[in-house]
Amino acid sequence: MWRSLRGALRCLGVKVCRRSALLVILLWLASWLFLNGLVFVHRNMFSDFCTDHKSKEILQRVCAEYQQGVLTGDLCEDLCVAGRVEYKRCLYYENGKKVMAASWRGVPIVLKSKLENFSSYEALTLLEYQDAAGGAGGEEELSPLDVVFYATLEIKNSLGLETGANLTLPRLWGQKLKENERTYSRAELASLWALLQQEEYTFLRVLQDLTHHVAKILGSCGHFYAVEYLAAGHAWDQYIFSLDELMLSSSPNPWSGQEKIINARDMVPRVALSFLEMVEHFENDFSHSLHLCDIKPENFAIRKDLTVVAIDVDMAFFEPKMRDILEQNCTSDNDCNFFDCISKCDKAKNRCGPKRKNSNLQVICEKIFRPWFSPTLLGAKAGLPLQVALQRAVQECAEIDGGEDAQRTRAVREQLKDLLVELSQEDTGHQGEGQEHKMRRVHTALHF
């Protein structure tokens, strides 16, 4: 009997041990998964957490690579040696993009890069070929024509455009190169190539000489480029743009001490006129229409002369690339919405149409103008005949399909323009001021 009892206890002990071992293994596995999950969440949630400490570390690495001869640019000497670039604060990190505020020789600027590290950008194939040739006992020099050829391919890939014969390296890159220099250093080529892989840099660099409605690039160091600091819009501000921030921007002040300083309410019709000018310019003055697919206050800014400027153009596309983006598989019209750019679903083919259904003007009327000229914001003036006519015009503008009736769209735009000019005259009390607010067309074309 005792033997049977000992056997039973031994069997029970084995079962308990096995269960305990299994529980320990399961507990260890659950702990491992939990800890790895925490690490994953931490990396994803806090890798884009904007801090001054991390921003300064990033710039220190840029300067270290500049000292090593890995990268260069017309901003590097002042940033890394002379101390003429003063870091101010971190603005935001988003999906790897780093954006910081600084001042360059006393002028406010914004430093940007799509990726944090210079090494994260794809290396220029020409440099790898040059290394192979050098290793084989030969030395291949790169002419500007070689670089322009590769730059042309990159621009075509990022913007969906062809480039013309007037494309030159200094135009793409702000580096002050000697006119008689026929070759470029490895650091110059690598830095240029890292910049060209950033769609926003390429977009701004190509367009800034052709329109005053995009932010100006002032310089670069490696993969970071500096743009002018402007008064950006805020969704929570009823007037979108702050006059206090406007005075801090780096753009020149067109008003002298003898002239009237405008208030926020006076500013609205003038800025609205500049929005209309920007829309007309983007639609008609380039070889392809430019589509803005993320229209919100934060993506625009104003200079001190109240010119509207597109400052975040990651979601701006010329017509050829816009068509490629829109033409996707679909089962309903909802599948054909690409942020603020939408098209229709052809249910017979289950494909979205390549032509955009709405327009830049329609979205701006809906998201910018309608809140501006609402009865809530206008207050006691909301019932005045001019204000009522303006509200109706804005409502019609927000509801029109830009791709269906071009003539009607032009008529609505002209009506808005006339009403805004009249409102601007009424608010300022200067009858002759309307001429100053007529649309300023820049008669240059972007022929790629």
Radius of gyration: 29 Å
Number of E strands: 14
Q: Can you tell me the CATH architecture of the largest domain?
A: Orthogonal Bundle
Structural class: alpha+beta
Principal-axes geometry comes out as globular
Q: How many strands, which pairing sense, and closed or not: the largest β-sheet?
A: 5 strands, antiparallel
CATH topology of the largest domain: Transferase(Phosphotransferase), domain 1
Q: CA-to-CA gap between the ends?
A: 99 Å
Estimate nothing, just give the exact number of structural domains: 2
Helicity level, as a percent range? 40-55%
Mean pLDDT: 80
Number of helices: 15
Element-level helix/strand string: HHHEEEHHHHHEEEHHEEEEHEEEEHHHH
CATH class of the largest domain: Mainly Alpha
Strands side by side in the biggest sheet: 1-2-3-5-4
Multimeric status of the protein: single chain
Unreliable sequence segments: 39-46, 135-139, 173-180, 255-260, 430-448
- SS strand fraction: 5-15%
Main location: endoplasmic reticulum
Pfam families: PIP49_C, PIP49_N
GO cellular component, one term: endoplasmic reticulum membrane
Biased composition (Basic residues): 438-448
Identify the notable features of this structure and list them briefly:
448 residues, alpha+beta, Transferase(Phosphotransferase), domain 1, five-stranded antiparallel β-sheet, 14 strands, 47% helix, 13% strand
